[in-house]
Automatic annotation (TrEMBL):
Residues shown, of full length: 1 to 226 of 370
GO biological process, one term: carbohydrate transport
Gene Ontology molecular function terms on file: ABC-type transporter activity; ATP binding; ATP hydrolysis activity
Signal peptide region: none
Boundaries of every ABC transporter domain copy: 4-226
Domain of life: Bacteria
Record bears the keyword Transport: yes
Protein known as: Carbohydrate ABC transporter ATP-binding protein, CUT1 family
Length: 226
């Protein structure tokens, strides 16, 4: 179970820029939350604080009923996928997917089973020997997703994961991400500035502006009262 509370979170950077101001929201277990808003409104900062890559100036990130502010990123059970795929260029698909398990000193048999399971789920079984440079954009994004889910995260964060793909592939990957979310039963926070992505993927949409929450609504509510 991974319901979350983002409890009155604020972030001031050292140069006194307030990136996020009193962000307060409950997120249901397995909810698909989409975060939208203009560039610079604090979306990435919010994700980085949740995953543990950025300190919080005030407030709490609560997962289940645990405050994780002081839990290191690697122990939070949160996966994050970025806009650039950030695959390891010198490693093949197998080793890219396996990477996090190797870091955890997972035994070889368990690792091999998990990698093959994830590869199958992501349709990558026949590409395990390939290097990232020889893959298409969609295949690379699937490797990035596979690498992120190998540790069975409680929470999945995605920061504009499709913005580097062409329009046709974006539509296809949209469906794949929705299906992946349903299979994994994780809680999802997905950042995008694509209206259609937000409206088709979200259970709820959070609109941010200048570091604050401006609106929280379901796609149906936004459709009726834009
Ligand atoms: P978004 O993801 O919505 O584009 P960001 O979270 O990246 O917004 O940025 C929010 C604000 O915080 C912006 O004003 C940005 O310039 C500032 N900011 C982001 N990262 C840093 C940083 N590492 N140091 C100082 N200011 C930053
Ligand atoms: P090491 O980390 O010990 O140098 P490798 O990274 O080469 O080993 O591989 C670790 C395990 O993963 C091996 O048992 C190997 O069979 C398996 N493996 C690596 N790459 C592939 C692949 N492309 N397809 C299938 N199995 C692979």
């Amino acid at each position: 179970m991974a319901q979350m509370t983002l409890n009155h979170i604020s972030k001031r950077y050292e140069d006194e820029i307030t990136a996020v101001s009193d962000f307060h929201l409950h997120i249901r277990d397995q909810e698909f939350l989409v975060l939208v808003g203009p560039s610079g409104c604090g979306k990435s900062t919010m994700l980085r604080m949740i995953v543990g890559l950025e300190t919080i100036s005030s407030g709490e990130v609560i997962i289940g009923d645990e405050v994780v502010n002081d839990v290191p990123a690697k122990d939070r059970d949160i996966a994050m996928v970025f806009q650039g795929y950030a695959l390891y260029p010198h490693l093949n698909v197998y080793d890219n997917i396996a990477f996090a398990l190797k870091m955890k000193k997972c035994d070889k048999h368990t690792m091999d089973c998990r990698v093959r399971e994830v590869a199958k789920l992501m349709g990558l079984e026949y590409l395990l020997d390939r290097k990232p440079e020889s893959l298409s954009g969609g295949e690379r994004q699937r490797v990035a997703l596979g690498r992120a889910i190998i540790c069975e995260p409680r929470v999945f964060l995605m920061d504009e994961p499709l913005s580097n793909l062409d329009a046709q592939l974006r539509v296809k990957m949209r469906t794949e991400i929705i299906q992946l979310h349903q299979r994994l039963k994780t809680t999802m926070i997905y950042v995008t500035h694509d209206q259609t992505e937000a409206m088709t993927m979200a259970d709820r949409i959070v609109v941010m502006r200048e570091g604050v929450i401006q609106q929280v609504a379901t796609p149906a509510e936004i459709y009726q009262h834009p």
